[in-house]
Amino acid sequence: MKLAFVELPFFEKYRAEYLSDDEYRALQNELLENPEKGDLIQGSNGLRKIRVANSKRNKGKRGGARAIYYHYINNKTIYFFTIYGKETKDDLKPEELKQGFEEMGRHLEGKITLRTEILEKPSPITITPEEVKAIRQRLNLSQAVFARKLRTSVRTFQAWEQGKTKPSAHASLLLRMVDKAPQTFELIAGI
Question: Where's the HTH cro/C1-type domain (predicted)?
Fold first, then answer.
């Protein structure tokens, strides 16, 4: 899934006050995973409110900031309206709502340019039992040696090869790395 994240002026103005770059990326990734995660704000024409941690003020999600956004499903866009501290206010005023939707409309019409970032959810990395076995055989290693080099148990590795269990996304990625670059084992050994 691909989503565009657009910052309306109020959000852009206050984002740095409430979110570090890493926290902002985490928020984007959270919404990329589930764009309708935030609570629907009654009477707001579809705006949602989501809690975000505010490390700059040592606050978790409960006492931290609130980001207000609109998920425009038709063009796969999240419009961030504003962000504010929980202690600052409870909800948006009607004039703030109106201004946000007007800015969103002008952006959709191409009349204003707003900071926009397009992110894509990476597809999950998977690997089949046949591929796991083929990698091991290509490297001419026994199951026990291969498992030890991966720092996993022989039983776990055997279950992967037999299709009884599936490697996690991280284990699948590591297996793909070993397949492309066998020297990955030496890097792992050095850790």
Answer: 132-169
